[in-house]
Amino acid sequence: MDAKDSYIGLMLDNRYEIVEKVGEGGMAVVYKARDHRLGRFVAIKILRPEYARDEEFRRRFHAESQAVAMLSHPNIVAVYDVNRSQGIEYLVMELIDGITLKHYMSLKDRLNWREALHFTTQIVRALSHAHSRGIIHRDIKPHNIMVLRDGSVKVADFGIARFASAQSTLTQEALGSVHYISPEQAKGGACDARSDIYSVGVVLYEMLTGRLPFEGDSAVAIAIQHINSMPLNPREIDESIPVGLEEITMHAMCPDIERRYQSADEMYQDLEQFRKDPNTVFGYIDSADEPTRKIPAVSDAQPHPAVQQPKAAVRTAKPEVKKKKKKKEPRGRSRFGIVAMIFAVLLVLALVAVMIRFLWQVVDPLINPENTKVSVPDFVEMGLLYDDVMEQYDVSNGGDFTIVESTTVEYADEPAGTVLKQSPSAGRSVEPGATVTLTVSRGPRTIELPDLSDYEYRDAENEIRRLDLTVGETQYEFSETVLQNDVIRTEPPAFSSLGEGETVTLYISLGPETEQAVMPDLVGRTEQDAIAAIEALGLTYGGTRTQESDKPAGEVVNQSVPQGLEVDKGTKVTLYVSNGAFYVDPSAEVSEEPSEEPSVEPSAPSSTEPSTEPSAPVSSEPVSSEPSDIPAGPASSEPTPSTEPSTTPTPATSSRMLSITLPQDGRETVRITIYVGGVSVHNATVNTAEMVYTVAISGTGTQQVEIYFDDVLHDSYSVTFGR
Fold it and tell me: What is the pTM of this model?
């Protein structure tokens, strides 16, 4: 096993057992692991040692990962935990059964526009959720988007890319990400939610056209094209792409961050509008007004703010040009003259602008006395609703202003529709008909409760807390269809809109409702009586096993379910019945003490009561019938020496050690019962976290050993004692 696989088989935090490696990246290696506490498989992302050794990196990684763990959205890969165990820094995430979008595109070469629209809409919804909580992805690319079997997508690695970008430069290894970075990222500047939108635009471009917008021999070359160049429009590559979808793509990829979509919600609204009407044309001019620029020849020699290059690689080759000799002028005089000329021109332009404004303010009222400015009221202080402002102040209703609503979404305690902000501000003098933009309250922020049915109840409680809601008092119900400990339903129901901190009650399944029966004592009964008692209680007869015993043949000597235990009706009960091998009939036993009195009187009783005399069993033997021979009769009917306890050799008893592998199926404890020759010799409840349970058992000769887990047969085999 190589060093990369040394984690396989390791148990982290006494909970996560690493099973196999499923992928790796620049920062971490991803493994499939079993969560023994919840009985499910998860993905474990283990940081590479060079990052795990950096204390400051670990601190920021933990803080960011804990923030990402608060995200809860069907299109985002869930982060369950971030922890450190045995010197290993790791994330616990949802295990996805699917492939990356990059792999999916490689299989299909080019996606049809409907499929591209379907995937992009889900990606943007995920970004909207994350951005609303202040988390920026920074590395949106098809490699970080998982496509599930049902056609849904999940975005992975939220918030982690900031660490990768801080630790590396745009080297050849960065080619996978540099194809999708925004111009501001390529410049090494700060990025925000709009940077993620640019990357989504590149992903959409690639899905529609089957190619990347920019290609190059190095990461530097590609990064510079994001800054300086415009790609071909998608319809120039494939005319079947709808105009509206092309506009959405290029608007998202606009190099000017201020002209790009300003939020994921804005892009989502356009995607939804286009989905409802594929003939929609938005009229964006990002690509139409700005012609495709010629892509300059780029090499690693060109410097880049976000790239660290060796000095030799930064040099730019200078062409040799023959310069004509000309008369040199004093350098200082020439520069001063140019500056003085520019200053003079600017001064003249400023004076002209002031004169024009003055004349306009003085002359215009004289020419148009009715064209007087109006003061903007304080709509915020009035506490008016947007509809009231429209009715009283909008030009369409005879007012002085053109009232419009801002696209900014604002949640507030004020009722929905209340004016929160205005532009221009109150008191400003504006021309009649001027536009006044109002920011309107959407009311208190609401949280949509997801469908938690079929969640294991502890996962459901964690999900409720992540949504800033309160877990109410848990209720329990029997269910024929929902597994025990899973959620049946919630109150309020799924998809309800809730306020922050509201209470959610979980209804947990107890499994199917079953009647109980108390196990009776069957030992000492006949097999038939025991079977009848089992069936009368609604239990199931599980068969009979025989074993050597000193009890009469057919008598029950043991039972698989202990007496007094309360069990579900239908539980199987196995009977252990004696084969009578060591049974001695009490009626045939004779006292070993010689009788001190004559067994019979020499008188008539022997003839008057022959049927009760002990001489009867030997009356047919050819021996003397004298009275002195009568006492020998009972001795002749004694058992043979082989059945006498005093003459039977007792086999030597010895011990054997058993090592029992405990079940790893989610149970925290298990009751182990061990039978040797049908007799219970050990009963204990143990913790399954111990993995292996060792116990000593005793016996003689070769015996059948049976091991039960919670009254269910686990294993059975022969053991020879004394070896």
Answer: 0.43
